[in-house]
Fold this sequence. Notes:
Layout: E1 3-4, H1 12-24, E2 25-28, E3 31-34, E4 37-40, E5 54-58, H2 62-74, E6 78-82, H3 85-95, E7 99-102, H4 111-120, E8 128-133, H5 138-147, E9 151-154, E10 157-158, H6 159-173
Parallel strand pairs: 5-6, 5-7, 7-8, 8-9
Antiparallel strand pairs: 1-10, 2-3, 3-4
Helix pairs in contact: 3-4
Amino acid sequence: xxxxxxxxxxxxxxxxxxxxxxxxxxxxxxxxxxxxxxxxxxxxxxxxxxxxxxxxxxxxxxxxxxxxxxxxxxxxxxxxxxxxxxxxxxxxxxxxxxxxxxxxxxxxxxxxxxxxxxxxxxxxxxxxxxxxxxxxxxxxxxxxxxxxxxxxxxxxxxxxxxxxxxxxxxxxxx
Length: 174
């Protein structure tokens, strides 16, 4: 299992993360192994059936957004990053993602409203929108469904679960 969460370099969480990474990350013949995920140096997970997706990552925590986008690129996807709700709506119209991983608690325009605005765009109905948030109560999930999200994942995201979800989208987006 691989879990991604943002940490700063000057707190106890970074010590835990560093310890966890050193125990779960190892190199073998140019392949980085993080938990149960193998990522080759050339990108992709080694799965010849893997499909590259265009993924918009939206999070106001820039470290978290950048880290997730880089990990998604390592397993073969093309990514674009937005840091607020308004930027997400614009990026969805120009980048034309197949999947949007959208935080809820965003500046300028919250994730629920950003989802609604993306759905109103000509390409918005065909996009898979997944709430990726720290908010995981039943009420939060209900609001996500009502706003038009296709799924709701709670941070910290398990990269193996996310990779599996993206792979399962193959049939939905094919």
